[in-house]
Amino acid sequence: MNTNFKLTGFLNTKNNNYVFVSYLGQVGAITENSIGGENTNLLPNGAKVLKIDPKKLKLIINFENKDYIIEL
Known about the structure:
Blueprint: E1 5-12, E2 17-23, E3 26-30, E4 48-53, E5 58-63, E6 66-71
Antiparallel strand pairs: 1-2, 2-3, 4-5, 5-6
């Protein structure tokens, strides 16, 4: 994954889990439906959120056919 990508926090609501990130100078939240270049500019193009685990403070992203586990 790109070193310009940083996980900064989690927000768990009744309906969704959100992850706060910064990427290339932009800050915002992504969800399990986020795909870089399709519905968010907070992930590298083609990167897809596979799972958000707020209890273990982990984010799992698939990028270029590899899974990345990013922990807070």
